[in-house]
Write a structure and sequence with these properties.
By secondary structure, this protein is an alpha+beta fold. The chain folds into 4 domains: 166 residues, no CATH class; 84 residues, SH3 type barrels; 151 residues, no CATH class; 82 residues. Helix content is 45%, strand content 19%. The protein is built from 16 helices and 9 strands. Strands 4-3-2-1-5 form a 5-stranded antiparallel β-sheet. It has a 4-stranded antiparallel β-sheet with strand order 6-9-7-8. Strand 2 and strand 3 form a beta hairpin. Helix 2 runs parallel beside helix 6 and helix 12 packs antiparallel against helix 14. The structure holds zinc ion (ZN). Zinc ion binds next to helix 6.
Length: 505
Amino acid sequence: MNAPTHIVGGYVFTGTLCSFTNVNVFENPEYIVACAVLSILPDIDTTKSLIGKICYPVSWVLHRKFGHRTITHSFLYLIFIWALFYAFFRLNLIPDTNLVKIAVFATIGHFVFDMITVSAIPLLYPFYKNRCVLPANPHFRFKSGDFKSEMIVVGICGLLCFTMQPLFANGFWTTYNRQFATIRHVDRENKNTEYYVVCDYSYILNAETSTGEAIVIESSQNELTLFDRKKVFTLNSDNPQLKINYTRPRISTIEKRFEDLRFFNIPYDSLQTMLSGKLTSGLIQSNVNVRYIEDAITHYTNFIKFDNRFDFKVYADVDTNRVTIRRNIARLEATINQSYQQHKNTLQKWTDYQNNIRNIEDSLKFPNLTNYERNKLQQELIRLRNRNPEQPTHTPPTVQIAELQQLRQSLTENNLLFSGHLTVYTFGYTHVIADSLRNPPYPPLDGQHTNYPPSEGQHTNYPPSEGAGGGPSPTSPISPASPTYPTNKPCYTGSSLLASLTINH
Ligand SMILES: [Zn+2]
């Protein structure tokens, strides 16, 4: 067999075997070159082959010493290739074992293709020189160097190279699971990978068909929790109202990773920052009651446990205790004000009275008064002086004032504070889907993916508008004296939490 046949055939053979171990021969240039070179390398034992011509002195020596199709077409050579590449891996010359697999499979591929030729190969060389063949009958085997049959093989394998790309790319088991397209297969795929599984789904609920692609958040044999376009939903195969058309898994390029946030006495704004625009699960405790909505039911509580919620909202507007305190403060303020106002009024009356007396006294000093007028004024003066009231004094409502101060104090102490922990999915939804759409990790398997890239309007709200993407809002107050929390687990208090969020986004 000549070099083109070995190379093209090598891609199909190696690609297929590698797909079982989730290695894609076409993933990067190194793999492609390695596969091609290793597929023709055994023919280094003849100066007539392509690789023999390239490595002329070596091939001349090998040919002189062993002859064509001998030592380099045996298990001994296969073991040598494996040991060589494994050594490369152990010496960190290659990053992982993928190249070891490719080298071994490409070599086996070469052997297989040589075995289906008339002259065959001595696999047990140098111990047994018997030739190993694939169909025993030589009439069914290829004649090496026969241009016509080689072209047929190149043609068929070349075609396979293209049509089998989805298999190479997705790996055998993913392709297998995609074909079945059931929840069980998505679950199996999800359990076997460290990367997020993206699932193409289609289901009918209430006579309405929904299709799309979503990230698999959780999976079990009969249920998938999916995250699509900012909402979390579940597909349960046991639900009689739900007809699932298909759920096809595809492995994304984003590693499954969670961020665990522990926080202690953080203010409301910081909590909002942690939750907004993210998919989270967790437990939140607050010093006063807050409100949240789940399944369209409003809950009032100071202890919230929630699972897989996107952009979870906690509302701090319903604390009845605080409302009562505020009402009492208003009532006391009114009473105290009233007391002062009353005093002010009586004081004003008294001042008016004194002014009146002073006016009369002044009038009496006037020389041109008639006796009648003078008499009248003097009588009036006597009457007023007799009635002369004491200057009013005011006793401030000390009890109420003390009470008011106490209430005001309790209100500041009662400032909303939250403690608890959160598990944050570290992908931004934008991230996984947008990236995989722009740059699909694997080519679509069938014609159903015609919406690559997404049609206009569908994704117009990505990236999410400001604020939703996390990051501390510029006005968020940072509690000035956050208590230190005696724990060796990461503990986030106000400022450090905000700092960590900034780093992660
Ligand atoms: Zn050969």
